[in-house]
Amino acid sequence: MKEAVMESAKNTPPCGMPDLRVQIGSLALRNPVMTASGTFGYAREFENLVDLNQLGGIVVKGISLKPKPGNPPPRIVETACGMLNAIGLENVGVDRFITGKVPYLRTLSTPVVVNILGDSVEEYSEIARRLEGVEGVAALEVNISCPNVKKGGVAFGTVPEMAAKVTEAVRQASSLPLIVKLSPNVTDIVVMARAVADAGADAVSLINTLIGMAIDPVSRRPRLANVIGGLSGPAIKPVALRMVWQVAQAVSLPVIGIGGITTADDALEFLLAGASAVQVGTANFYDPSAAENIVQGITNYLQEQGEDRLVDIIGTLKTGTD
Amino acid sequence: MSEFQQKCSILGRDCLAPDIFRLTLQAPKIAADARPGQFVMVRVIDGLDPLLRRPFSIHRSFADGNISLLFKVIGKGTAMLARRCIGDQLDLVGPLGNGFEFSDDRPVCLIGGGMGIAPLLFLAEQLHSTGRATEKDHVLLGARNKDELTPLADEFSALGYTVQLATDDGSIGHKGFIPDLLDFVLPSVEQVYTCGPHLMMKNVVLQCQQAEVNCQVSLETHMACGMGACLGCTVNGKRGLVHVCKQGPVFNADQLEWSLE
Ligand SMILES: Cc1cc2nc3c(=O)[nH]c(=O)nc-3n(C[C@H](O)[C@H](O)[C@H](O)COP(=O)(O)OP(=O)(O)OC[C@H]3O[C@@H](n4cnc5c(N)ncnc54)[C@H](O)[C@@H]3O)c2cc1C
Ligand SMILES: Cc1cc2nc3c(=O)[nH]c(=O)nc-3n(C[C@H](O)[C@H](O)[C@H](O)COP(=O)(O)O)c2cc1C
Ligand code: FES
């Protein structure tokens, strides 16, 4: 209890500054700006460029049970205001993550969310079990939405029953706050959100990348070795915003908005649409200071609007008849 | 090792040949830490198209806090960079990557093709500044034509290196490819450094392997972050995939799988 009090004291804004704190289930964030999985490495990559302790949260690269080598190169290609990637979830595996990466992450005052992925329901729950009780891990984000793996992945993110099964299994294996990350590559994302909400998720995050492709007309070959990949960056923001808005209206869980967020205005759009927090992805690549600047920009906005607390603006979008 | 994100003023802009430019930038933090073979990620404009930064080798680094970049216009990003003016600010992240390894006084050969010459001038200057006898060292430079080579070749010569040139059209030096020149040089050197088109480097590496001369290569791949975060910049290494931005861009040639590419 004492610890909890100290924790919240640490997050209390300085006198006269707006209060940016938000709550994702039982996960308390000092501000709503997190970094998105796969775009911030294991955080240490950015330690010289970003004050990691100013961020709301850090979501690390997706972790599987066994290390994954990922897809063959080329793995990335730039598109108009966006990029396609087919990394194929290259990662060190859960055991080396715990021994090699967590000791550094533990030194940060920012909560670390571990993004997890598996080829089967059992794999998801096994990873969750191994992360249980590991100091320095604040929450799990279950990735059921990666377009770049052949086995299982797609079905988990597109079939509501499968998404619910994975969610239930992880829920049983873990006492950590549970965020389920949704795929936009579905006909009705609200159905998916409801399914994982009913299965025990504490929050949903959306969106993961949209499936896309690019072709080199000269060689007449796909630009990615994997042929198709995930589209991210500013190009996908309107789609992400629409989905966040739809889901925020349909479920009572906190929603985390992701997709093309680069500036404070982008982030504010998601917050007004009903997101309790946001994740900054591709922007970290071209502007490592994006997340920090967004925190500052949100602060400025609240001051200009005469708002004391960020939570008071969440979901205050005015539509039609208001 | 530390990297910085810095807004850097453009102090100089020279057009060395059609489509080849040299920018001098005020980048004190990056200049102070830079080692030959390292690179910077440059945001060519502030907007969102092109979205990603472009990687460029550090071509020179000066004691007064300036660095220079040498680049060729090949697409959208480099075309926009070429239109930036003196006084403009460019957002840079760097210095990134590992850089070349050099230590002793063994005679070396620097082999640059096209814009692969860029990092080698920095290396040549650094080697020269250690007070070594540069006349035992060789520099082989290749490009399409004389225009693309002359100002650069002179800068290597001025440092005392023995410079040989090759051009596709024979407008200066040997008409043909760099590896044609290498056979004559290899017996007298103990370390080769190369950067340039993949096919050129591959031939250089094979020749070095036959002659049992150690060879360091600097690679180019598509990069999104340059910092080891996106995992997009992989190439085939002998023991699985390697990340060019973090484990490279400089590799010992025998770390890499040349046959697969
Ligand atoms: C470590 C490193 C150092 C480099 N140093 C230099 C240098 O000193 N001088 C120089 O002229 N060029 C250098 N390059 C290549 C340079 O980055 C590309 O020419 C440039 O990114 C092309 O951008 P563009 O927008 O004009 O081309 P576009 O073809 O429009 O670019 C589209 C995408 O492809 C990427 N791309 C295109 N060509 C290359 C390439 N050859 N290598 C890597 N990515 C590429 C771009 O970065 C971009 O993401 C270097 C590359 C790397 C990886
Ligand atoms: C290179 C790259 C790697 C990614 N890896 C993961 C991952 O491991 N797990 C995951 O859930 N999402 C991953 N994502 C998706 C992002 O977390 C994010 O959902 C998506 O990029 C959309 O946000 P953005 O437009 O801000 O980038 C990755 C995205 C990119 C660009
Ligand atoms: S360019 Fe992103 S990891 Fe190398």
What's the topology here?
The complex is a heterodimer of chains A (322) and B (261).
Chain A: H1 2-11, E1 22-24, E2 27-29, E3 33-35, E4 57-63, E5 76-79, E6 82-85, H2 93-105, E7 112-116, H3 121-131, E8 139-143, H4 153-158, H5 160-173, E9 178-181, H6 189-198, E10 203-206, E11 210-213, E12 215-216, E13 221-222, E14 228-232, H7 237-250, E15 255-258, H8 264-272, E16 277-280, H9 283-286, H10 290-305
Chain B: E1 4-17, E2 20-26, H1 28-33, E3 39-43, E4 54-57, E5 60-61, E6 66-72, H2 76-82, E7 89-96, E8 108-113, H3 117-129, E9 138-143, H4 146-158, E10 162-167, E11 174-175, H5 178-185, E12 191-195, H6 198-211, E13 214-218, E14 234-237, E15 240-243, H7 244-247, E16 250-252
Parallel strand pairs in B: 8-9, 8-12, 9-10, 10-11, 12-13
Antiparallel strand pairs in B: 1-2, 1-7, 2-6, 3-4, 3-7, 5-6, 13-16, 14-15
Helix pairs in contact in B: 5-6
The complex binds flavin-adenine dinucleotide (FAD), flavin mononucleotide (FMN) and FE2/S2 (inorganic) cluster.
Flavin mononucleotide binds at residues 36-39, 61-62, 85, 87, 89, 115, 143, 146, 181, 208-209, 232-233, 236, 258-261, 280-283 of chain A.
Overall description:
The complex is a heterodimer of chains A (322) and B (261). With 322 residues, chain A is of the alpha/beta class. Helices cover 33% and strands 20% of the residues of chain A. Chain A is built from ten helices and 16 strands. Chain A has helices at residues 2-11, 93-105, 121-131, 153-158, 160-173, 189-198, 237-250, 264-272, 283-286, 290-305; strands spanning 22-24, 27-29, 33-35, 57-63, 76-79, 82-85, 112-116, 139-143, 178-181, 203-206, 210-213, 215-216, 221-222, 228-232, 255-258, 277-280. In chain A, the strands form four sheets. Chain A has an eight-stranded parallel beta barrel, surrounded by seven helices. A four-stranded antiparallel beta sheet of chain A has the order 5-6-14-11, with no helix packed on it. In chain A, strands 1-2 form a two-stranded antiparallel ribbon. In chain A, helix 3 links the parallel strand 7 and strand 8. Chain A is globular, with a radius of gyration of 19 Å. Chain A starts with a helix and ends in a 17-residue tail after the last helix. Chain B is of the alpha/beta class and 261 residues long. Chain B has helices spanning 28-33, 76-82, 117-129, 146-158, 178-185, 198-211, 244-247, and strands at residues 4-17, 20-26, 39-43, 54-57, 60-61, 66-72, 89-96, 108-113, 138-143, 162-167, 174-175, 191-195, 214-218, 234-237, 240-243, 250-252. Chain B has a seven-stranded antiparallel beta sheet with strand order 4-3-7-1-2-6-5. A seven-stranded mixed beta sheet of chain B has the order 11-10-9-8-12-13-16, with helices on both faces. In chain B, strands 14-15 form a two-stranded antiparallel sheet. In chain B, a hairpin with a 2-residue loop joins strand 1 (4-17) and strand 2 (20-26). The radius of gyration of chain B is 17 Å and the shape is globular. Chains A and B meet through strand 5, strand 6 and helix 9 of A and strand 14 of B. Bound molecules: flavin-adenine dinucleotide, flavin mononucleotide and FE2/S2 (inorganic) cluster (FES). Residues 223-226, 228-233, 243, 245-246 of chain B line the site of FE2/S2 (inorganic) cluster.
